[in-house]
């Protein structure tokens, strides 16, 4: 039980001490292996019969556990998984989230402004990303994976409901949400729901499995060179040939995870996809986990090519993205936009739940979050979103992204010129001009020495000065630098990257001699 003044004082001290630890940890990216082992040995083996109290627990958290956590969000040199960071404004707001512990899914305007704040946060996001607030509705989620589940669920609902109407009549109100997937497919005469995309992220396969569509329904309709670009002829052929017993969802990969390249490159391409979807009754979804934020720098000639990759996305039916990436708010936070709130309500409504129905004395126009997402109860993740957008605004976020892109391009240029490294994909980045045009926030590369390449990721990360993700490209091991932290500084961080890579080469040379 809380003992008020003593426990509050303990909490204040813990917060101050944690800030000191954060400052100390920001100089290194990963804890030493000895620290990890030491911390594991201090973890409770069994539930204590008598609680050890807040002071001893706080001491354990700060002394033992905190030093063994990585600096993924704290360090600008953590380049793994597009983790992003946490802006100071978002960090302050997140502390209030835990303190007040609101559930914004239940709209209670006479009791709390939590759902009002989330509604404003979503509208500010739409403004930042140039989505018409009158045309789109939104929801905050745990991340892009959950948002992709929402998008495919709405797409599944739409394409099957349209086929049901063709069998039962245009006035039919039967839906997948009411009938269930198997019965709906039988009535609709549909044997499969195709998901047509290019170089899909693994979360799309996961979402397909969760929704009962199956991972095998995800089909690549990209160009023959193996990159992320749509082959529009393939798309139309697939839609045309399978329309009798198959319904389709088209998914735009707005930022391929290994390269950062875009599936579309102009408004005209997205218009073509939109027209094809309309002609064949398909749903158009965007997986914009990080690529969607390229819309923030639209209008700047320096970033024209990447901006083109995110143009026209307002023509889609639904959009998924992450907040804990380039928005730089804490885990977990994603968001989902949809142009068809009625369809979302068919999927996510809470029927026969009288206790969730509120009689609001206050008249407002906020759509109940209960019927626009997965959770009935969740964290107040909209407050950090609201706070960070208020603190930094459109110009602040444009500045963050511009610094991130410029730094990624500087790293890519260094690797392109380096005798011991190779920038990937080779055919895309064939000269310096292609780097200045096409690099977004991800840099993919390998060591030319095959043996070194196999050990490269491990050696880079062992420095604890920077962290990269390992991946596979064209059947070979590759290293991936994903730039997404708000603290990025081109000169300072480029020096870190160059120094770490040269030290790796020097160490390898000594070991090989």
TrEMBL record:
The UniProt GO MF terms for this protein read:
carboxy-lyase activity; pyridoxal phosphate binding
Entry's Gene Ontology cellular component terms: cytoplasm
| Positions carrying N6-(pyridoxal phosphate)lysine | 325
Question: Per its Swiss-Prot or TrEMBL entry, what cofactor is needed?
Answer: pyridoxal 5'-phosphate
GO terms for biological process?
carboxylic acid metabolic process
Give the keywords, sorted. Lyase, Pyridoxal phosphate
**Lyase as a keyword?**
yes
Query: Which InterPro entries does UniProt cross-reference here?
Result: Aromatic_deC, PyrdxlP-dep_de-COase, PyrdxlP-dep_Trfase, PyrdxlP-dep_Trfase_major, PyrdxlP-dep_Trfase_small, Pyridoxal-P_BS
Identify the SUPFAM superfamilies for this entry: PLP-dependent transferases
Q: Which family does it belong to?
A: Belongs to the group II decarboxylase family.
Q: What name does this protein carry?
A: Tyrosine decarboxylase
Q: Which organism is it from?
A: Imshaugia aleurites
């Amino acid at each position: 039980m809380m003992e008020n003044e003593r426990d509050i004082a303990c909490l204040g001290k813990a917060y101050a001490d944690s800030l000191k630890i954060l400052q100390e940890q920001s100089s290194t990216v990963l804890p030493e292996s000895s620290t990890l082992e030491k911390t594991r040995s201090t973890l409770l083996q069994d539930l204590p019969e008598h609680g050890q109290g807040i002071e001893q627990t706080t001491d354990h958290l700060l002394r033992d556990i905190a030093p063994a956590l990585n600096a993924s969000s704290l360090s600008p040199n953590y380049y793994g998984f597009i983790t992003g960071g946490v802006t100071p404004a978002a960090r302050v707001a997140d502390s209030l989230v835990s303190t007040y512990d609101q559930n914004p899914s239940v709209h209670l305007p006479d009791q709390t402004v939590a759902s009002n704040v989330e509604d404003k946060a979503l509208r500010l996001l739409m403004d930042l990303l140039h989505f018409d607030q009158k045309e789109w509705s939104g929801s905050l989620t745990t991340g892009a994976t959950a948002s992709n589940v929402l998008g495919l669920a709405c797409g599944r609902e739409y394409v099957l409901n349209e086929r049901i109407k063709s069998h039962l009549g245009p006035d039919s109100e039967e839906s997948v949400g009411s009938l269930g997937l198997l019965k709906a497919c039988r009535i609709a005469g549909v044997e499969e729901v195709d998901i047509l995309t290019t170089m899909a992220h693994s979360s799309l396969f996961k979402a397909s499995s969760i929704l009962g569509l199956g991972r095998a329904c995800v089909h690549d309709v990209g160009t023959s060179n193996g990159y992320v670009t749509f082959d529009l002829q393939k798309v139309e052929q697939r839609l045309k040939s399978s329309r009798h017993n198959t319904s389709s969802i088209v998914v735009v990969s707005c930022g391929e995870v290994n390269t950062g390249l875009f599936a579309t490159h102009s408004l005209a391409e997205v218009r073509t996809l939109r027209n094809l979807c309309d002609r064949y009754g398909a749903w158009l979804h965007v997986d914009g986990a990080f690529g969607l934020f390229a819309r923030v720098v639209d209008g700047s000639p320096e970033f024209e090519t990447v901006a083109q990759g995110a143009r026209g996305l307002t023509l889609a039916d639904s959009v998924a993205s992450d907040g804990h990436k380039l928005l730089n708010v804490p885990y977990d936070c994603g968001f989902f936009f949809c142009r068809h709130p009625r369809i979302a309500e068919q999927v996510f409504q809470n029927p026969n739940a009288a206790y969730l129905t509120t009689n609001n004395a206050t008249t407002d126009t906020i759509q109940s979050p209960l019927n626009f997402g997965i959770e009935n109860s969740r964290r107040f993740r909209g407050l950090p979103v609201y706070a960070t957008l208020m603190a930094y605004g459109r110009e602040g976020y444009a500045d963050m992204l511009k610094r991130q892109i410029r730094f990624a391009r500087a790293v890519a240029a260094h690797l392109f010129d380096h005798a011991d490294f190779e920038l990937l994909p080779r055919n895309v980045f064939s000269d310096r001009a292609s780097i200045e045009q096409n690099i977004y926030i991800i840099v993919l590369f390998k060591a030319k020495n095959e043996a070194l390449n196999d050990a490269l990721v491990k050696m880079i990360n062992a420095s604890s000065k920077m962290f990269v993700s390992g991946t596979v490209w064209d059947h070979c091991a590759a290293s991936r630098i994903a730039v997404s932290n708000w603290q990025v500084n081109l000169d300072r961080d480029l020096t870190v990257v160059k120094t770490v890579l040269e030290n790796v080469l020097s160490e390898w040379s000594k070991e090989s001699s």
